[in-house]
Amino acid sequence: MISKYVVPLTQVDEVRDAHLAFLEGLEARNLVVTAGRQDPPNGGVVVLNVDEEARALELIAQDPYVLRGVAEYTATGWIPTRGALKDYPKP
């Protein structure tokens, strides 16, 4: 999932703790592989461990960033074939 902030960064940061807690909950369920802010900070990337785009969209719809209207996400499928995530366990 690739996000784009749709409000000033100061408004995004007001929701950031809730967003990070949300991601932590997904991590605990083995649904987040990695995540982070883009540089420069105009959005972020969340790599979800799901099989279908519909599931990714269902999960990300619960993100406080979405619920509070500070970011929009685009789903981008990706299958790692090299590097550290090549053999990452499937859901």
Automatic annotation (TrEMBL):
Domain YCII-related: 10-76
Coiled-coil ranges from the UniProt annotation: none
Pfam families associated with the record: YCII (PF03795)
SUPFAM superfamilies: Dimeric alpha+beta barrel (SSF54909)
Domain of life: Bacteria
Family: Belongs to the YciI family.
Protein name from the UniProt record: YCII-related domain-containing protein
Annotated organism of origin: Paractinoplanes ovalisporus
Lineage of origin: Bacteria, Bacillati, Actinomycetota, Actinomycetes, Micromonosporales
